[in-house]
Design a protein that fits this description.
210 residues; mainly alpha
C-alpha cells in the first residue's frame, strides 16, 4: 500500500483523483447514514456521524486546491481513481452486509437498515483507522501541504462510538462484525487493486513520455 500511495502523492493529477475518490466515498457514506435514519428516533450519534462524514467529503475536496491541478469539481468518472470500483465499493458492502444481517438476525425494514448501518459503519471505521494514517505518513514523508490528521482523530472517535452502539445492540456483535469485516476486506482489496493498476499504468505512461 505504501508504495502505491507514494506514487499517487508524487503525481499531482493522480493525487487529485485519489483525494476526489476518498471524498466521493465519504459523501456516499454520509448519504447512506442519512438514508438509515428514522424520522422520529434518529439519535445524536447518528446525526453526528452523517454530519462529520459530509464534512470529511468537503475537507478532502478542499485539499485538492492545494495541488497544482485544475478541475475535479465533480465526481465524474474521469476525475476519480478506479471509478467503477470507487462508486460500487460502499454499495456492495451495504448490500452484502444487509443480506448477512437479515439472515442471522431475521430483521426487516428499518430494523434491518439500522443494524446494517451499525455493522457497515464499524467495518468502514476499522478500515479508515488503517488507511488514513498510512496516507498521512506518506504525505508527511513528502512534505505535502495536504493533511488528513483531523480526519484521523474523528474516525478514531467514530470507531469507539460504533463499538459502544454495537455493545447495546447484541452481546455477540464481535462475531458478526468479524464476518462483515471479511466482506469489507475482500471489497477493499478489489478496490485498491484497481487503484494500484491505474496508478502503475499512469506511472509507466509518464516514464515513457519523459
Amino acid at each position: 500500500m505504501q508504495q502505491i500511495l507514494q506514487k499517487i502523492v508524487q503525481e499531482p493529477v493522480l493525487h487529485a483523483k485519489w483525494l476526489n475518490s476518498l471524498s466521493f466515498m465519504e459523501n456516499a457514506g454520509a448519504r447512506k447514514i442519512s438514508a438509515c435514519e428514522n424520522a422520529e428516533t434518529a439519535d445524536i450519534i447518528q446525526l453526528k456521524h452523517a454530519a462529520e462524514e459530509h464534512r470529511h467529503a468537503y475537507y478532502l475536496k478542499k485539499q485538492i486546491l492545494k495541488l497544482p491541478v485544475e478541475g475535479f469539481t465533480y465526481y465524474r468518472n474521469t476525475d476519480l481513481l478506479a471509478p467503477i470500483h470507487t462508486k460500487q465499493y460502499l454499495h456492495k458492502l451495504d448490500v452484502e452486509c444487509s443480506r448477512y444481517i437479515k439472515k442471522v438476525f431475521s430483521l426487516a425494514n428499518h430494523d434491518l437498515k439500522y443494524a446494517a448501518y451499525l455493522f457497515v459503519t464499524y467495518a468502514i471505521e476499522v478500515r479508515a483507522d488503517e488507511l488514513y494514517p498510512a496516507y498521512q505518513e506518506v504525505l508527511t514523508a513528502n512534505d505535502s501541504r495536504v493533511m488528513v490528521k483531523s480526519i484521523i482523530v474523528e474516525e478514531e472517535g467514530h470507531l469507539e462510538e460504533m463499538m459502544a452502539q454495537l455493545d447495546r445492540f447484541d452481546d455477540n456483535w464481535k462475531e458478526h462484525a468479524a464476518r462483515v469485516s471479511e466482506i469489507e476486506g475482500r471489497l477493499f482489496r478489489e478496490w485498491f487493486a484497481a487503484v494500484s493498476d491505474e496508478t502503475l499504468k499512469s506511472a509507466r505512461h509518464t516514464e515513457i513520455l519523459t
